[in-house]
Write a structure and sequence with these properties.
Bound molecules: adenosine-5'-diphosphate, tryptophan
Number of helices: 13
Radius of gyration: 21 Å
Mean pLDDT: 95
Low-confidence stretches: none
Order of helices and strands: EHEHHEHHHHEHEHHHHH
CATH superfamily of the largest domain: HUPs
Length: 318
């Protein structure tokens, strides 16, 4: 076994990723894969809370795998797998459900938001943080790179680990979130948080045409020297010192600045898009990566679950 610390994270397959997802969370997966024992999964069980269309779930799940490979996750360094290939997490989530109170989970932001919108909330949405805790704790993960909006889920995970350890004896490691402060919230083309729900995204694997139309659609207020919404996206791609010079030279010339941003976005997205297309042409190889990833992870969590079952008093036969 390697002495490296364990990094774990996942992305829910709910549609095309955007530049905000990348800079807020996914970029770290790639940058950290050399320094950690990295495990990145497709959170398809979590996606079931909102997607009950078989074809759509399957397609989105496969898309996330290509997205991972496209951004540069290297299967030789990172174990990539489907959450549903490690069904132990649902068993562990059940055990967590039995030591967690309703009022405690009712404080979760995601649940409160859903409730405020008067949505008919399924139990999966309510229990979502416990399945996430199981994903993380069953692997004894040390660090979990996520965007800011997942911070509370990691706090809940830590609370559950502490509670279980108190009740049954030292069992789970207490994981740390890894949140990049400067990109905690990437802004979209309208200046709000970039989000699929706001229709203000730049898709991560956008075509050149899509890049152009998204940038042309960036909202600018006339009369500003620096079009703030253009600058905010641009600063993800270029060092601020260079950018300040450029924006000073082209003060007030919105169209020119947008052209510069289009050029930089094309240079940034182009190679990732090409890599994704290449993986897309090798479905057997991708399938093999995923099946090996699942097998490897099942082996890892098997021992942990034997320990957990014994600790809580679940008699179990192999
Ligand atoms: P969306 O809001 O578009 O539906 P998700 O909720 O699927 O995005 O988020 C997936 C991951 O990307 C999470 O880790 C989240 O924190 C991160 N993320 C999403 N939007 C942004 C953003 N605008 N800035 C930074 N990180 C983001
Ligand atoms: N809830 C996360 C999101 O929406 C996805 C996720 C599920 C996750 N399980 C996880 C992230 C475990 C990190 C670790 O983005």
């Amino acid at each position: 076994m390697s002495a490296k610390k364990v990094l774990l994270s996942g992305v829910k397959p709910t549609g095309r990723p955007h530049v905000g997802n990348y800079f807020g969370a996914m970029k770290q997966f790639v940058e950290l894969q050399d320094s950690y024992e990295s495990r990145i999964f497709v959170a398809n069980l979590h996606a079931l809370t909102t997607c009950q269309d078989k074809v759509e779930l399957e397609r989105n799940t496969q898309d996330v795998v290509l997205d991972y490979l496209g951004i540069g996750l290297d299967p030789m360094k990172t174990t990539i797998y489907y959450q549903s290939d490690v069904p132990h997490v649902t068993e562990l989530a059940w055990i967590f459900e039995c030591i967690t109170t309703m009022p405690y989970l009712m404080r979760a932001h995601a649940f409160k938001d859903a409730e405020a919108k008067n949505k008919e909330i399924n139990i999966g949405v309510f229990n979502y943080p416990l399945l996430m805790a199981a994903d993380i704790l069953v692997q004894d993960a040390d660090v979990v790179p996520v965007g800011r909006d997942q911070q509370q889920h990691i706090e809940i995970t830590r609370d559950i680990a502490l509670k279980f350890n108190r009740m049954y004896g030292e069992t789970f490691k207490i994981p740390e979130p890894l949140i990049l402060e400067n990109v905690a919230t990437v802004l979209g083309t309208d200046g709000q948080k970039m989000s699929k729900s706001y229709n203000n995204t730049i898709p991560l694997f956008a075509s050149d045409d899509e890049i152009e139309s998204a940038v042309m659609g960036i909202v600018t207020d006339s009369g500003q020297d620096i079009p703030k919404n253009v600058y905010e996206i641009h600063k993800l791609l270029k060092p601020e010192r260079e950018l300040q010079k450029l924006y000073a030279e082209k003060k007030g010339q919105y169209a020119e600045l947008k052209k510069e941003l289009i050029k930089d976005l094309k240079n940034f997205i182009g190679p990732m898009r090409a890599r994704r297309v290449e993986w897309e042409s090798k479905p057997e190889e991708v399938e093999k990566i995923m099946s090996e990833g699942g097998k490897k992870m099942r082996k890892v969590v098997h021992e942990k679950m034997i320990e957990v079952r014994a600790k809580v008093g679940l008699i179990h036969n192999e």
